[in-house]
Design a protein that fits this description.
The chain is α+β, with helices and mostly antiparallel strands. It has a three-stranded antiparallel β-sheet with strand order 3-4-5. Strands 1-2 form a two-stranded antiparallel ribbon. The N and C termini lie close together (11 Å).
Amino acid sequence: MSKTPFRERMYPCVRCRRDVRVESLLHHFAAIHDEQLVTAERDGTDACALCGMELPGDDENNAWKLRVRHFREHHGKRLLDTDAIR
């Protein structure tokens, strides 16, 4: 098992197969695929652009795992190929 924190790991994007750092994933989808997945709320929190659900903040424990899981479980969107051999 990798000792690298999940947010700093590199995985291929399921759409374009480019390696993407997990913490840059949402920016990657906005910039490369023109798909805004997150909206910033006035109170400083992030919300899912698809359903409006509040997403965990960067400082919360396992925040990036929970963000990636939200899109997979609630919207059927796989964003990263986490099964790829690294």
